[in-house]
Structures are given as structure tokens and as C-alpha cells.
Amino acid sequence: MKKYFDFKGHDTNYRREIIGGLTTFLSMAYILAVNPSMLSLQGIDGVPDEMKMDMNAVFVATALAAFVGTLIMGVFARYPIALAPGMGLNAFFAFSVVLTMGIPWQTALTGVLFSGIIFVVLTVTGLREYIINSIPMEMKMAVSAGIGFFITFVGLQGAGIIAADEATLVSLGPVHDSGVLLAAFGLLVTVILMAKKTPGAIFIGMIVTALAGVVLNLVPMPEGVVSAVPSLKPTFGAAFEAFSEPSQLFNTQFLIVVLTFLFVDFFDTAGTLVGVASQANFIKDNKLPRANRALLSDAVATISGSILGTSTTTSYVESTAGVAAGARTGFASIVTALLFLSAIFFSPLLVTFTSEVTAPALIIVGALMASNLTKIPFNQFEIAVPAFLTVFIMPLSYSIATGIAVGFIFYPVTMIMAGRRKEIHPMMYWLFVIFILYFVFVSE
């Protein structure tokens, strides 16, 4: 096992990998509750039952999709990157495709399946890896830093430290709220542990915060330890039902759905891979080793997830929390995958790790990733502008893909105007056109 994952070459051991894998799991375990709630359109009045997915079945599908995708990533690609149904993609699935367009959720799953199949083709031909390797290092660092700002914003928002405001869009939240104080306590503990260079500081910080929350009655006490596994029957294989009615598949609306799933997952995954890889110092000569394997793992996970009954499965930026805790190889992903599998049996325990508990991990990791800004030559205006927009737009638009799109549209423009046309990779022109078309025809 040590030889296969090259523990020596990555200067790691079982303890660090296990802590890293566990930290990643705890940082993204919220998806086990959020995804079923979102896809079942819970809490929305007046929605017909046929438009709602079975919440319990989606819970199992979410856990199994995360297990399958993360396991493949760990064993095949050997990266400490976890996968699960993606946030943003599940919102598009539920609210745009099903609720607004009126497309049956079974057909929406077929759209996810199609996008996964297209991903496999693009990956096998090497086009996805070629595109990622064509991105200049400065923009890769901008993507990484942007993801850092993005997940910090997610953490601050989840903790209630940053709240919505009608006048200014966002503002400081209720600082005297118990949840905010718990998150602030966790952040303080984690910062102290990080400053003292304590191994597994982020993981320990979450554990201490969770225990404090339980003791002070700020975090739900688990009602039990083990629960029965819900049936997967309501969603399993539903993605194939649309094939019996070809009219649902061969129309412009369905094409837009597939293209949107394809676009967002493509660049969310690319951004996440670059972010995690740069955090762990995996990128060599502006290339990510075994990138094709990582991308293929992501594509297969999407296909598996659609068959199980959930929206697009993608790589998670929360994997950077595990990397910060010590994860360096695919063994950490195996640990995370097994924890997702076990979650279907021990789901009551997950209620302890609320957004207030996991927020400090996201904030700290965001700060660590922001250090990539130092690798961007901001004294060169033609690079500074697209890099800055990439970083700035991600948290403001609440979308990694949108941040990448805006920055990559400006990059060839500023470089050409600065007389540096020869330094632009030909693929960047194609990406420029693709992103323009996306904003014109697909983006809402």
C-alpha cells in the first residue's frame, strides 16, 4: 500500500492520510443532508409530488455516488480529492431544470448521464487534459486563490458571520448569535493550533468545536448511532426512463440542460483540481501529473451518480481541508470514500457537524489558498486584470465556473493589447469563444 501510493515520495504516513481523509469527509459531509433536501424541493409550497424526488432515496444515492467517485479518484488517479454531488449543479437541477423548465426529474437525470458520457469521450481523447495544461500558470494560481476566497465566503456565510442585507447585498451577521459565537470560537481554536503547527490542526479544531456545541446545546445531540438504510428503488435507474420517450431528449431545451451540466462541471472540476493540486504542490512544469486519470474518475463518477439517482457528481474544493491536514495521496480518498459509505448506516451522527462547526476549516483553508496570489505578477497589468477578475468574481457570483469564464475572456484581450500575442496558447482563444457563447446562449 505504501509503495503503490508512494508515501515516501510524498513524505506522508498512514496517520496523516487518515486524518486528512477524515477532515475532508467532515468538511463536506453537509452534502449528505443538503442534496436530498434540495433535489426533493423540500420546503417549497405548491410543488406537485411528481416533481419531487424521494428524499431518503436521494440521501442514499448521494452517499453512494460520493463513495464510488472518491474511491475511483483515490485508487485510479491516486489523488487526495473527494467527489460528491456538486453544490450549484444540484440547485440548477432542482430549481432551473425541474421547477422552472418543468422537465421531469427523471429526464434531468438523463441529462446528467449524457454529460457524463460526453466527459468520458473528451477525457479519453485527452482533450480535457490538453485544455487544463494550456492554461497559463498565472491564471491557474488565480483560479486557486479565487477558490480560496470562494470557500472562505461559503464558510463565513454558513457560520452566519456574513449575512444577507437588502441594501448592501451582504454585511456582518448578528455577532451575538450563539451559532456565530460557536463558529468564532472554532476559528480561534483552529488558528491557535495552526500557528503552533499542531498536526491535524483543522480536524482537531472541528472536533473541539463540535464537542463545545454539544455541551452548550448549540449543536444537535444525535438521536441515535445507527439507522436503517433507506431504499434506493425510487431513483435507481430512473435516468433510463426518458429513453422510452425520445421527444423528451431531442429538443433545444434538453440540449441546453446537457450543455449547462457539461460546462459547469467541466470548469468547476478543472478549477478544483488546480486548486487542490497547487495547495499540495502537485503541479510540475505547469502540468498536473495523472490529470487524465483524475478527470476520467470525475466523469465516471457523474455517470454512476446519475444512475443511482442524483445530480452531477464533481470534485470538491473541501478536499483542500484534507490536504491542509496532511493528505497527500489517494489513500486519504479511500478513507473519505469509506466514511461516505458508512454514512448510510450512521447518518444520525452527522447532525453534530453543522455549518458552524465546519466553517472554521473552510475559512482557514481559504486563507492558505489565497497565498497563491503572491505567485501572480500584479505589476503586469495585462495579467493582473484577468487574474483579479477571476479571483473577485468567484465569491461574488457564488460560482467557480463564472469566475473562470470572466477571467479567461479578459486574458487574451489584455495580452494581445499588451503585444504579447505569441505567449497565448491557441486553446485560450477557443476558451474565449466558448465562454462568450456561454454567456450569450446558456447563462441565465
UniProtKB/TrEMBL annotation:
Membrane is among the record's keywords: yes
Transmembrane segments: 21-44, 56-77, 89-106, 112-131, 143-163, 175-194, 201-219, 254-274, 329-350, 357-378, 384-411, 423-441
Record-linked InterPro entries: Azg-like (IPR045018), Azg-like_bact_archaea (IPR026033), NCS2 (IPR006043)
Keywords annotated in UniProt: Cell membrane, Membrane, Transmembrane, Transmembrane helix, Transport
UniProt topology in membrane: Multi-pass membrane protein
One Gene Ontology cellular component annotation held by this UniProt entry: plasma membrane
UniProt family annotation: Belongs to the nucleobase:cation symporter-2 (NCS2) (TC 2.A.40) family. Azg-like subfamily.
Name assigned to this protein: Putative MFS transporter, AGZA family, xanthine/uracil permease
Organism: Lacicoccus qingdaonensis
